[in-house]
Write a structure and sequence with these properties.
six-stranded antiparallel sheet, alpha+beta, homotetramer, Thiol Ester Dehydrase, Chain A
Chain lengths: ~140, ~140, ~140, ~140
């Protein structure tokens, strides 16, 4: 997968993604992927990645999956998002993979799964599902 | 409300909270409050506070509300959390107020509401509800 | 609270509500209430009221709360709904109380709480939050 | 897939499933399927299947998927369930397919998708994700 320059530009304007060290690695045809390291600055009290880190990249991967099927003059906003946390966020890198479940003119239902990579193996650490609203820029 | 030193210590170990500029202002009797500025480092693409910021302090306020009713040798983990975003995160300060809805030995159901303060007035920007699991340290 | 005839008429067209023995007891100004007995026909495997019963009246109470603030030529559809079950549905009567959290032209965020009444005392058995879409009839 | 007699017996004790005309068609190895007609008794106000019908069979399919990986002396209860409704419930038959996403000793994360069959084609009408608690009978 590749990343459309317009979507990359939207991602680059999200200072939160920079703060988390996140990178947009794919956004095309209703799918998107974001990676992020588990930085010393984004931990919870037990030393694992914070749920807010996992949520942030999962929500953004879902949002860019939605944006990838919209016109160039549209943006998306998260209306609601649910996350089930499955395992601690520990390892070398987090990978969030987002996808569109149901496109719509007024609402786009999206999902994302987040994995932690450690020594080449991936552990499924979270699953998200939520609703995006297309807006005019 | 005040903050128990043990709960403050747990909060201080969350480097994510420091990165977001968040402060724990209350945690007692099943309620907790966390404030955070909208920093230049935690924005989304339109210049508002990122949903990940709102989620992070809302989830943590819910978690510390739960922790405030547990024994000193217990911790909590988020099992699942839902967020409905109601308005853009803009203003001088975000305030997340968490509460326990239903305590339990195996699960604690919690909720949080997040407000944006601007010129002294508060706007309700998000509502969260989720499940915490008590664990032994 | 009272029930607007147009809202009562919508409720009466829901054969599911009749099957569950449900009654709309209030719908006004962003609030609604629905009651239902725990019938021999709506139980789960342990003899308590089925989660589907609790969900159905909670979702409908949220929906009629939303409908109560709309124009006469509008309807609502549930886009998404979350339920946390807090206690078994047992007792004489279930009461679902719905309310609008955030009105909007495109989306209405709603909540509902469901209680089981037994010997005059109420137990909080479920809390719901979800998104309604206003539609033209 | 087949249905274990113990799981069939649990299903048969759910009078709600009988009221909805639902049948358990599979429950094995972390997966389960339930079908239900759209009866004249289970409609919403526009004549489509009620969201409570879709929720009930989706929640039960998720629950029996979880039960299928537990010991014979265990039951499951729904702790929380989320549903996104994707399309109206119309057609000849609803089919709910549940699966375990993450097994656990204390919690089992499950999902279900519900489809409406019409003239042999299936439309995806809802997706659910939620948490089951294993209990001793």
């Amino acid at each position: 997968m590749s990343v459309d320059p317009r979507i990359q530009s939207s991602f680059d304007r999200q200072s939160m993604m920079r703060t988390l060290g996140a990178q947009l690695t794919a956004a095309e045809n209703g799918r998107a992927a974001i990676t992020a390291p588990i930085l010393p600055e984004t931990l919870q009290q037990q030393g694992f990645g914070h749920a807010g880190l996992t949520f942030s990249i999962g929500d953004s991967a879902a949002g860019y999956a939605a944006l990838s099927i919209l016109r160039a003059d549209q943006e998306v906003l998260t209306a609601e998002m649910k996350i089930n946390l499955l395992a601690p966020a520990k390892g070398d890198l987090l990978i969030a993979r987002g996808r569109v479940i149901k496109p719509g003119r007024r609402l786009i239902v999206t999902a994302a799964d987040v994995f932690a990579r450690s020594d080449g193996a991936e552990t499924h650490i979270a699953t998200l599902i939520g609703t995006m609203i297309p807006t005019e820029i």
